[in-house]
Each structure stands twice: as structure tokens, then as C-alpha cells.
Design goal:
By secondary structure, the chain is of the alpha+beta class. It contains two helices and seven strands. Strand 1, helix 1 and strand 2 form a beta-alpha-beta unit. The protein is globular, with a radius of gyration of 14 Å.
Length: 127
């Protein structure tokens, strides 16, 4: 089940970048497979301390990692960044594509920040 933090507008998912939905579903499937809680903590919300407009533009979603073992946090981050390199947002600081960032914004909890680049490079995986 997908949970949301209070004041998160689930309807905002209608206005996000299509590739972001791919990341969200992948993370959700991972959580379900390992029976981990899955809570969206931010979609298009505005908070101070953010360094980009990726949330406002519908290119980022934050997920809680509360009750996630460190093993699964690190594993999902690594898997998503490898699998979705072609659609992950490009970091301004080092030019590296990252679909999943595990970080903390001052005053908030550690969380996953799922993010995609603005271009519409649709994600396809062919066997």
C-alpha cells in the first residue's frame, strides 16, 4: 500500500514527469518485495532549503526510509542509479546522473529523493 505523509496531495501525481512515475513504481515494487513501509513524504510541495525546483516542476518525489534497514537503503539507491542512469537528474555539482539520492535536508529526516531530468528520454528496457 502506498501511504502519504499528512498534507501530501496524492493528486499531484497526475502532474509529474512520466519518468518519475517509472521510478516511483520501481521503488514501490522493491518495498513490497521486501515488506518495507512505503510512504511518500513530498511530491510538488515547496519547502525552504531546497536547492532546485525539481519538486515544483514535477520531477522529484521524496520517500520516507523510516524503519528501512541500512542494507536496503543502500541497495535500492545503488540499483536505481544503475538501472535508471539514462533518466536520472544530472547533478549540477559533479555532472553525474542520479535517479535516487539518499540524503537529509537541514531540519528534516533522512529520505530518498527520486529525481528525473527535464528531458523526455522515455525509459525503455529491452531484453
Amino acid at each position: 500500500m502506498i501511504n502519504t505523509k499528512d498534507k501530501v496531495n496524492f493528486e499531484d501525481l497526475k502532474d509529474v514527469h512520466p519518468n518519475l512515475l517509472v521510478l516511483l513504481v520501481y521503488a514501490y515494487q522493491y518495498a513490497r518485495r521486501y515488506e518495507l513501509p512505503f510512504t511518500i513524504t513530498s511530491i510538488k510541495d515547496r519547502f525552504s532549503g531546497r536547492i532546485s525546483k525539481s519538486h515544483e516542476e514535477g520531477r522529484a518525489i521524496d520517500l520516507s526510509v523510516k524503519a528501512w534497514p541500512e542494507f536496503h537503503i543502500l541497495r535500492l539507491t545503488k540499483k536505481m542509479n544503475e538501472e535508471f542512469e539514462s533518466i536520472g537528474a544530472i547533478s549540477k555539482s559533479d555532472g553525474i546522473s542520479r535517479a535516487c539520492v539518499y540524503h537529509k535536508v537541514e531540519g528534516n529526516a533522512w529520505h530518498f529523493h527520486l529525481q528525473v531530468r527535464a528531458t523526455l528520454n522515455l525509459y525503455y528496457k529491452f531484453a
